[in-house]
Specification:
Distance between the termini: 57 Å
CATH topology of the largest domain: FAD/NAD(P)-binding domain
Bound molecules: flavin-adenine dinucleotide
CATH architecture of the largest domain: 3-Layer(bba) Sandwich
Strand order of the largest sheet: 3-2-1-7-18
Largest sheet: 5 strands, parallel
């Protein structure tokens, strides 16, 4: 490293900042590295906070991945907690910091400055927003306050049905509270498509969580014993405490005041090496605007994985010697790969959702639904995974995937996420060689099956019908499930010929009219599609069958 960059100052000592500091030390033993955090802790597990509230994590100490002492002893990194960075003087290359305990203000000079101040929880300017009993969760002290409030509470309203809102709802319920969720979107877990989120909504209700979807909070009022939450539907929810989990704003104040370039939707503008518009300043984590890996759009996607990777990349870039190597890392963009488990139901996603693609007016994409078991059906305990895989119809490039189920969900989405990062196509999923023993998977893993179904479509072997056009198609809907399954529930207009009888009943089918095939999950309809195509019928397949239809219908009513 050049002498002119010997002093590295880092603002924020959690995911991005701590990662950057430790990496910088591993690369440069001679640098002076100082981390400032206004909170009392660094390197704590914010992702574990909901579980600390719910007593799944029982000791607060376990949330501390590293302490200032460990940073000092192991890495020779100085950590200043309860020290807020107030101002950046870019011309003088120094920052003004304030010791929160003593009020002392001092100046610290830098050769390289890294900003990792994260994001702050959104508190919208609603009537009553500052009333006691309305909490956000970002820090250990926040979770401590919530834990204390929970001791005296019987009920809670969680505002926001995304990842953090749902994790909080689960943990508050675990503590015995009656929990309601108010979510402005018409579904929980907005990153998922509605039909993929609908099993989760049902599961939340089964676990006694009340859902108010498509409703926003209009304000809060104090009552004798607690709070009233008013919603846009004139509902009044009486509660003991409120958790606000409606998203975050990047902490850009320092950067803005210093005149660093800020992106259109907020978030510090950085390049692939996490450099800001100032050659001596880098920025990482929730505070930066990132490129969507799939579509190239600039976005704010606050996730721990990207923050950690960006911290490492910034350190590599700061340590000049690393820049010259061919293997210098560069941030590739964010896919939004995320996972969440609520009351034993896991949902995971990577890449773009169908609704995002529609908003982008993306013309050439298709999706397949499938519901395979997490492992071989003959081995006891197989549980279904509901999957949706979205791909472009030009080359079959993977655009996104979502999955919901009890077992094996994250593994499948992880495989697809990595495939997407390698610009893989559905044809690559078809050929992926994955672990198989009966208790772990199947000889055709759900990932292979997703690739096979999508590839079959692109090769013309499995034309797909559009579920959205079901209500106004002239096609004959042919259900090839057994009579008994059909009787349990079917589309009003459907004709039932069980697959096993199809060859002998071809004369009952119209030779000129399009036929849309469906079954329970899509497999028998696929066999029927092949059979009928080879008998010169015009057929299409309703991907995912009855199970997908039920999920689509449920999404309309949640
Ligand atoms: P942070 O980790 O938030 O760190 C920023 C630090 O900077 C803070 O400690 C703050 O005090 C300090 N700071 C800010 N301004 C100043 C200043 N002026 N001076 C000094 N210090 C300052 N992501 C996942 O991928 N998976 C999950 O399961 C997950 N769960 C989460 C659960 C919760 C409850 C929360 C809150 C977040 C969760 N996240 C999760 C998101 C993830 O934690 C963040 O994306 C990640 O921590 C961002 O890292 P960061 O370094 O940008 O900011």
């Amino acid at each position: 490293m050049k002498e002119t960059r010997r002093r590295i100052l880092i603002v924020g000592g959690v995911a991005g900042g701590a990662s950057c500091a430790a990496r910088a030390r591993r690369l440069c033993e001679r640098c002076e590295i100082v981390v400032f955090d206004r909170g009392p802790y660094v390197s704590f597990a914010n992702c574990g906070l909901p579980y600390y509230v719910g007593d799944v994590i029982t000791e607060e100490q376990k949330l501390l991945v590293a302490t200032p002492q460990l940073f000092k002893e192991r890495f020779n990194i100085q950590v200043c907690v309860e020290t807020e960075v107030l101002r950046i003087d870019r011309a003088a290359q120094n920052i003004e910091v304030r010791n929160i305990r003593t009020g002392e203000i001092r100046t610290e000079s830098y050769d390289a400055l890294v900003l990792s101040p994260g994001a702050r929880a959104i508190r919208p300017p609603l009537p009553g927003i500052d009333l006691p009993g309305i909490h956000v969760i970002r820090t250990i002290p926040d979770s401590r306050r919530i834990k204390k409030a929970v001791e005296k509470a019987e009920s809670a309203v969680v505002v926001g049905g995304g990842f953090i809102g749902l994790e909080m709802a689960e943990n508050l319920a675990r503590k015995g509270l009656t929990v309601s969720i108010v979510e402005m979107a018409p579904q929980v877990m907005p990153p998922l498509d509605p039909e993929m989120a609908s099993p989760l909504a049902a599961h939340l209700r089964e676990n006694k969580i009340k859902l108010y979807l498509g409703e926003s909070v209009a304000g809060f009022a104090k009552t004798d014993g607690g709070l009233t939450v008013m919603t846009s539907d004139d509902r009044k929810l009486e509660t003991d405490l409120v958790i606000l989990a409606i998203g975050v704003h990047p902490e850009t104040q320092l950067a803005t005041e210093a005149g660093l370039e800020i992106g259109k939707r907020g978030g510090i503008q950085v390049d692939g090496f996490m450099r800001t518009s100032d050659p001596h300043i880098w920025a990482v984590g929730d505070v930066v605007r990132v490129k969507d890996f799939i579509c190239g759009e600039e976005k704010l996607i606050p996730l721990a994985g990207p923050a950690n990777r960006q911290g490492r990349i910034a350190a590599d870039d700061i340590i000049a010697s690393r820049k010259t190597t061919a293997a210098s890392p560069r941030f590739r963009g964010v896919q939004g790969t995320a996972v969440c488990d609520i009351f034993g139901l896991t949902m995971a996603t990577t890449g773009l959702s169908e609704k995002t693609l529609r908003l982008m007016a993306h013309a050439n994409f298709e999706k397949v639904y499938l519901h395979p078991g997490n492992h071989a059906a003959y081995f006891p305990g197989a549980r279904p995974i509901h999957m949706k895989v979205i791909f472009d119809t030009v080359k079959g490039r993977l655009l996104g995937a979502q999955a919901v189920g009890e077992e094996g969900v994250a593994r499948r989405i992880d495989v697809i996420a990595m495939a997407m990062q390698m610009h893989a196509t559905v044809f690559d999923l078809e050929e992926a060689e994955l672990c198989y023993a009966p208790q772990f998977g199947a000889a055709k893993d759900p990932v292979n099956l997703a690739g096979m179904v999508a590839s079959n479509h692109l090769r013309g072997d499995l034309p797909l019908a559009d579920w959205d056009k079901l209500s106004n198609t002239d096609a004959l809907i042919l259900d090839v499930r057994s009579n008994a399954e059909f009787e349990q529930g079917h589309l009003d207009e459907a004709k039932n010929i069980p697959l096993e009888q199809l060859r002998s009943r071809l004369t009952e089918l119209p030779p000129k009219r399009e036929i849309w095939l469906m079954c329970g999950v899509g497999q028998r309809a696929y066999y029927a599609t092949r059979l009928l195509l080879q008998n010169d019928f015009q057929v299409k397949n309703l991907s995912g069958g009855w199970q997908t239809f039920c999920a689509l219908e449920a999404a309309k009513t949640t």
